[in-house]
Amino acid sequence: MNLREQIQVAQQVLRKVDIPLLPQEALALQKLFNESDLPDIRAIKQLISANPFLAGELISLANQPNISNQAPNPVKDLDSALYRLGNKRLKNYILSIYINQLLNSMKIKGLSYHSQDIALIMAEIARSTRLLGVDEAYLLGLIHDIGGFALSEIDENYGQIFVGRMRNHYSMYKQEYARFGTTHTALGYVIADNWGLPPLISQTILLHHEPNLQAIKNTQLRQWTAILELAHALAVEKSNQMSVSLEIKKVLQESSTVLNLQEETLKRIRLSIG
What is the pLDDT of residues 106-116, one digit of tens each? Predict the structure, then answer.
């Protein structure tokens, strides 16, 4: 399945549907972060304080054990939340909050819950492997299936079965290509690129159903893709403990090999994600 062709068809599909837009507040905050690696925290706080929803979500995020280091005292105010999350990582966390809000408004049944689950599992894997930041892992987990929204716009039945087919990790990808001439991964790549996300994130979205991880030449891209695929496998394993498909077992084995994960590390991750 030629990736270039998939991307070209994805671009054509997205001309026919409305691509979700990030709110102006998110764009203003992104501009602040893009202007400097360490933007003025007072300017950031001023923008956040003007949006009670965003402030509340950041406080909630700072209390997530998978995100922070399970501090004994819960965060109750914005200043403490910003300190715990860290100035350098705020950009990805803020973007994650807005993306989660978009996911909640989409037609795909269960997509928001699935994406949140993957995001938290990826954060735990990132903490164990240290191959990407927890904030990067969380953002990537939330956004990785964003391309599914476009297929649900052109096929009303797609959104009802999308999440349920996740246990067929490779075959669902082939079925999408056979039916639409593109895939949710290629659509997600184009959307992420249009939003100006880092190339490594958009490329990982594009490749996250790749059956041969060793074929990915760039080491960092191969590792990030393996982390996302591992999170998928662990999420399916967690929800279908009595019936894990052969495809998911293969994903688990392939991704663990790329990441050089020992069984003891996998066991610890499984315990952490419940």
Answer: 777 677 888 99
Best CA proximity match to 158, nearest among 102, 232, 106: 106
Q: How far is CA 229 from the centre of its chain?
A: 11
Report how many domains make up the chain: 2
pTM of the complete model:
0.89
- 77 CB contacts (<8 Å, ≥6 apart)? 59
CA distance 147 to 150: 6
**Which amino acid, one-letter code, is at 223?**
Q
Domain that holds residue 27: 21-105
Q: Which of 71, 88, 105 is the last residue of a domain?
A: 105
Tokens of 124: 């735990």
Q: Are residues 136 and 10 in the same domain?
A: yes
Instruction: Tell me the C-alpha to C-alpha distance, in Å, between residue 206 and each of 43, 50, 100, 200, 249.
Output: 35, 35, 19, 10, 21
Tell me the two tokens of residue 51. Answer: 């949006």
Domain match, 168 and 237 both? yes
